[in-house]
């Protein structure tokens, strides 16, 4: 609903507001510092977000698509060779069976994805998969025809 605020215009030192609706929830949060205000906001209204796992703050390796597990292995070998600690390997669209299609199927370039990602996990490397929620509008696309 539209709300109009009057911050000291009608009368110095006052704040007022009006709304076109009969009822509305407003929360006024005061504090001396932004930190105080944020603490009240998150503790009283929204709750706080959990801290992501430590590995999420680590080093992510990515490029505009590794073209196969073989290329990923080469990059990881080089990282090991130069003692580059890493936490995540990010795969862009090349992992899709068909580029730019949200079928979520691994293509021939990335066989046995569960096995490969499990072996990466044993090394402490997490896998991030780029997602693209687009279904090409073609009759030969089962996701499109089902929709």
Question: What keywords describe this structure?
Answer:
alpha/beta, 147 residues, elongated, 4 helices, 2 domains
Write a brief structural summary.
The chain is elongated, with a radius of gyration of 26 Å. Helices cover 28% and strands 14% of the residues. It is an alpha/beta fold.
Describe what this molecule looks like in 3D:
This protein is α/β, with parallel strands linked by helices and 147 residues long. It has two domains: 3-46, no CATH class; 54-129, no CATH class. Helices cover 28% and strands 14% of the residues. The strands form two sheets. A three-stranded parallel sheet has the order 3-4-5, with helices on one face. A hairpin with a 7-residue loop joins strand 1 (3-7) and strand 2 (15-19). The longest helix is centred in the N-terminal third of the chain and has 13 residues, at 34-46. The model has no long low-confidence stretch (mean pLDDT 88).
